[in-house]
Amino acid sequence: METPATMSASFQTTFPTTAVMDPIYDFNLNVVITVTIFLLGSVILVLNTFLCFYYYKKNAIVYEKLFFLLSAVDATTGLAALLQSATFIGILTNTKAFVSVVLTVTYVISAVSFHVSVFYNVLLAVCRTVVLSCPFFKFKLRILYCISAFYPVVMVMLAVYEVNSVYINYHSLIDKIMFLIISPLCGSELIHNYYPDFNDLGYYLLLLGIPFVLPSLICLVCCICATIYLMRATKRDSARKKYRMKSSKTGENLRRRRKTNSRATVTILQLSTAFFICNTLYFTTEFTLQAWNPGHIPHEMYLVYVAANVLPFLNSLINPVILINRGTHLQKYIKRHLEMFSNSFSF
Fold it and tell me: What's the whole-model pTM score?
C-alpha cells in the first residue's frame, strides 16, 4: 500500500527542482492555486454566511433546517480554502515554521468539512425523498439533530487521530504536506496502523467507496425519485386545470402548498445533482490517480490536489448560488442587506 512517504519520493524523482520545498514547488502553479483558492474561499465564506443568518432566523420546516446545516458546513469549507491558500503562501515564501503550525488546523477543518458536507447533502436528499414517498410522515427533530451532530463529532475525532498519527509516523515536512493538504483522505492512517497488510483494493474502497461513492449512488436514486414525482405532479396539475373547481380559500391554499412543495423539490433536486456531479468527478479522479499512479503525468501532484480539494470547493460554491437563485425571499433578504451596507458608506 502506497504511503505519503513513497508518494513524495516518487514525486521528487519525477520533478527534480532546486527549491527547498521539493517536490511541492512549482512557483507559477503555486501562485495560480494560491490566488484561485483564496478567491474561492472568500466567495464561499461570504455567500454561505449570508445563508446561515437567513436560515437561522427562518428555519421553520425540516428542509430549511437542513439548508442551514448545509450552509454552515459550506462556510466552514470556505474557511478551509482560505487556510489552504495560507499554507501555499507559506510554501511560496519557504516559511517552514508557519506551514508546520497551520497544517494541523487546515487538515482537521478540510477533512471534517468535506466529509460532513457529503453527509448533509445525502441527508437532505433522503429526507426530501421520504417526504415525497410518505406525505404524512413527520420527522422527529430531536433524532434529526442527534444524527446531524453525531457524524461531525466522529469525523473531528478521526481527523485528530489522523493528524497525530502523521506527526508520529512521518517526520518530513513534505510527507506531512502530501498527506494533510494534497489529498486529505480521512481514515488512511487508521487503516494503515491497525491493518498494515490490507490490500490496495480494499483500502481504496473503504477510503473512497463508503464516504463518497455510496453517497453519490444514494443521491442518484433520490434524484430519480424526485424527477418521477415532479413529472407526475405536472401531469396531475395539467389534468386538474381542465376540471378546476370554483375558486375557494381551501382550493387556493392547496394549490399554493403544492406549488411550494414542487419548488422545494426542484431546489433539492438541483442541489443533489450538483453534489452528484462534483462528488463523482472527485472520487473517480482520486481513485484513478491513487490506484493507478503512473508517476509520469506532468504535475500529477497538483492534479491530485485539484481533484481532492477544488471539486469540493466548487460544490460549496454552487450550493449557495442554487439556493439564492431559487429563493425569492432570500434574494430580497440579500438585496436589503446589501442596500443597508451601501447606504452605511454613503454621505
Answer: 0.82
